[in-house]
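Example 4.3 (complexes with small molecules)
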Amino acid sequence: MATREAHRLDQARVQALIDPATYAQWDGALDLLDTIRSEAPVAWVDAGEPDHPPFWLVSRYDDVMRMSKDNATFLNNPRTVVFALTEGIEFAKSMTGGSEHLVASLVTFDAPIHMIYRKLTQSWFMPGNLRSLEDEMCGIAHKAVDRLFDAGPEVDFVKTVSAPYPLHIVMQILGVPEEDEERMLFLTQQMFGGSDEDLAGMKAMTPEQVTQIVAASVKGFEEYFAALTAEKRAHPTDDVASTIANAVIDGEPLNDRDMMGYYMILAAAGHDTTSASTAGAMLALAQDPAQFARAKVDRSLLPGIVEEAIRWTTPVQHFMRTAAEDTEVGGQAIAKGDWLMMSYIAANHDPAQFDEPRRFDAARSPNRHLAFGAGAHQCLGLHLARLEMRILFEALLDRIDSVELAGEAKRSSSTFVGGLKTLPLRVKAA
Ligand code: HEM
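Answer. The structure with protoporphyrin IX containing FE bound is encoded below.
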């Protein structure tokens, strides 16, 4: 089997891969990943900097699928995302008494604890339970369309609809009062978009500044959810926050850190991701008026539009795994302890799996994309995300006559969760 040296990426590509700005230029990012996939589908990425430990980039669909499903060999611990700074890790260790994770959550747990925690809330996110929320979601969707028309005819779809809509829904499910949503949005954008100068409102941040922003965001969450836990213990209600606050494992309530991590992963994972795929679906429809017109009269096209938008946008751009033992991926020897990046963007644009992967094709079938991951950690909110999008687009297709781009759509700079941060549209009411 080939050595690391044989598949070592040159520094120009390494720097591009770990630079958040690369992912703001979508075609450029796809070009980069396509070239790497065809030359070295399992490539060694070594920036030679302590802030960026080396890793294997896995870019073929089949390899990412296999790794995702083999949760015994490919562990989520100790580090799940590539954005890791020495200062950040040291800070996390000092705050947590040794863990590299500032917050412990489903994505940082491995077996057996992972499933025990996941099962606490899993039923909330299953289709049967979600059905009972459909009417409420429909009302929230129509309010979002009202906002679109109130702000129109020229409007930023992200700010008006795609960001606040899933945020409101996930906050309702969590049990966070409406008046606190702005704060949640701010905190999660700091956490996920901390490297994007527009989102964080800062230019040319140093690694230390970025670390401070993330740490401040975590602290903000902790303070907020400590108060919410006290409230839900004193007065339990029918929501996920009450389930977490009152959960018992081995006869003990969850400790504060695990509880905060649970709230945070749900609050954070549940909206920026869906906002990105929702905005992507709208961009695709705005760019193709014939498709918009077809979907308006034939709603059977909607599930295909939703699924393809999720693949086409791939909001979660990667997750990392660590090899539990000596193994191989795609014929490449991997040593125990090696760090690997599963590039969902590259997997979802692998021409061996998807014909013309850059084309938005609502009729794509099969469309077994990896945007939600696979295996034990597969997205807990995938049914919710699909349902939210379908319900919103039902409302949009009912009430919009036509839609077109009114300016340049811009993506955020991020190595982790990414997508459109502005989508200027001109909409005409039906
Ligand atoms: C289009 C929208 C979304 C996308 C693309 C997405 C993507 C992902 C991905 C790629 C993972 C990791 C999968 C893996 O490691 O195999 C994940 C995990 C997760 N997602 Fe989502 N997600 C979305 C929406 C949501 C929503 C609405 C929620 C609701 C709360 C949510 C909650 C979670 C949670 C809790 C996990 C961790 C699951 C675990 O580790 O067991 N996500 N998501």
